[in-house]
Amino acid sequence: MTTIWIIITVVAAIAGYAVATLLSRQSAKSRANLILDDARKEADVIKEKKVVEAKEMEVKIIADAERNANTKMQKAQAAEARAKQREMQLNMQQNEITRRKKELDSLKQSLDTRLMNAENLEKTLEARQGEVDHLHRQAQEQLEHISGLSADEARERLVESLKDEARTAAQGYINDIMDEAKLTANKEAKKIVIQSIQRVATEAAVENSVTVFHIENDEIKGRIIGREGRNIRALEAATGIEIIVDDTPEAIVLSGFDPVRREIARLALHQLVLDGRIHPARIEEVVAKVRKQIEEEINETGKRTCIDLGIHGLHPELIRMVGKMKYRSSYGQNLLQHARETANLCAVMAAELGLNPKKARRAGLLHDIGKVPDDDPETPHAIFGMKLAEKFKEKPDICNAIGAHHDEVEMTSLLSPIVQVCDAISGARPGARREIVEAYIKRLNDLEQLAMSYPGVIKTYAIQAGRELRVIVGADKISDQEIDSLSANIAKKIQDELTYPGQVKITVIRETRAVAYAK
To answer: First vs last Cα of the chain: how many Å apart?
Structure first.
């Protein structure tokens, strides 16, 4: 019984499986049919879309082809039009060439005709020239026979007579011009000089070789001197200035020839007294600091001076030297004030003469630049200043004005005499320089008497404040060859025996005069 149930169960399971399989196959078949239907529909849609796209692409291709064809057609038509236009131009040029060729042929024929006429005319002229030459020779022979002179001799006599007449007329014109110039030159020159002096303000000389340092009480003198004088010795060694501490109440005297050193010593003393710490190490530190401040002030003074005078483009080293002029003096006249005064005088005088006042002012400011070198050359300050200006690329006319303001080089520009005159005006005006009148007069007399001691000397004149000595000698006592040696001997004797500032120019004049009276 159990076996039968088992068999029935197995058969039932197999039958169920078969039925399930059959059902699943029918279901899969139906799903496959549905999928196929969907695929067919989708394929139809895609087919229709592609057909539409293909038709649109075909239309676009056809439109592009038509457009390209139209473009090529237009280009072809334009090229054809240009070709026709070029052909027309070529035809016109060909016609023009043909016309010009005909004109050239006719012109050539005309030229050939004229050339033949010219050749005939030249032959005729040659024949006529021969006749004229023959007639000229005949007339010349007749004139020579009548006058008794050859043609060359007559020509020479005529030329000589014309030269004499021209020379006489020219001398008359020269004399008239010279007389007129003599009448007007001095008057105009004095007028210009007076106007220049009147238009420039001046100052009197106040410079000296000592500086007085004022203190509040005499107790500070002991601190400045220090133990066994070590402070004052350190200060003198650092500044190069002699410090005089005497019985003068509330004052210390700083003595030295160099104003820069005196100013450094004065400022250093002032800072040391204010600070209260006075010992050798502090003194050296303060002096070094003050020296640097003075150097900066020198540069600032040079820049300010150039700005005030309207001078631009000056080399920095020249600007520094201009600033150093503030601490230099000549006969008590401050060198910077002298340079500024000379520059203003030069500008005024150049403007009066119709020259460039800016160049004149520049040359006037730099004319004594050779007096403030860092070293101490033996070259005269005018020559040394000219070399400095050339070194720092100043213009040739300004360099010549610097070097020629004491006649040590030849003047090559109109600025040179202006600078020379204005320098003399600034130095020679009353109150410009401090010098004892008696010593000044004695020095001039010594110059004149020294030159008078030579044989053949008639008169001597010390001029330009003793900068030039003019010696007049007798023409019957000294020859032209001897005046060179005489001027050299006088210069050497002045150099050996006399004391004088700057340099002295010796000019020896020898002249012969013939005097007659018409009665």
So the answer is: 206
Let me know: does 259 contact 212? Beta carbons within 8 Å: no
pLDDT tens-place string over residues 100-141: 888 888 888 888 888 888 888 888 888 888 888 888 777 777
Burial code (b: 16+ CB inside 10 Å, e: under 16) for 478-506 equals beeeebeebbeebeeebeeeeeeebbbbb
Q: Which of 281, 284, 278 is nearest to 220 (CA)?
A: 278
Q: Which two tokens stand for residue 82?
A: 């240009």
| DSSP designation for 225 | H
Instruction: For residue 127, give the amino acid letter.
Output: A
Alpha-carbon torsion, ordered 486, 491, 492, 497, to 10 deg: 120
Distances (CA, A) of 242 to 167, 237, 263, 477, 493: 73, 9, 12, 55, 35
Encode burial over 121-149: b for 16+ CB neighbours within 10 A, e otherwise.
eeeeeeeeeeeeeeeeeeeeeeeeeeeee
Which among 228, 212, 316 has a CA at the least distance from the CA of 266?
212
User: What are the Cα distances from residue 336, in Å, to 204, 256, 340, 362, 421?
Assistant: 13, 19, 6, 13, 18
406 and 503 Cβ atoms separated by less than 8 Å: yes
SS3 content of the chain, % helix, strand, coil (to 5): 70, 5, 20
What pLDDT does residue 193 have?
62
pLDDT at 485: 85
Supply angle C-alpha 43, 44, 47, rounded to 5. Answer: 85
Helix or strand or coil: residue 122?
helix
**341 near 202, Cβ under 8 Å?**
yes
- Asked if 368 and 502 count as a contact pair (C-beta separation under 8 A), the reply is no
Please give the backbone phi and psi of residue 508, each rounded to the nearest 5 degrees, phi first.
-100, 130
Cα distance between residue 517 and residue 519, in whole Å? 6
DSSP state of 257: S
Q: Are 443 and 502 in contact, with CB atoms under 8 Å apart?
A: no
- Give dist(CA 384, CA 280) in Å, integer: 39
Q: Which of 226, 215, 217, 218 is nearest to 279 (CA)?
A: 226
Residue type, 47: K
Task: Report the percent of the chain where pLDDT is more than 90.
Answer: 0
CA–CA separation, 364 vs 339, rounded Å?
A: 6
CA 248 from centroid of its chain's CA atoms: 54
Radius of gyration over alpha carbons of the chain, in Å? 57
E-assigned strands of 75-219? 210-214
Q: What is the pTM of this model?
A: 0.46
Looking at 276-334, list the stretches that DSSP marks H as alpha helix, in order from N- to C-terminal side: 280-309, 316-324
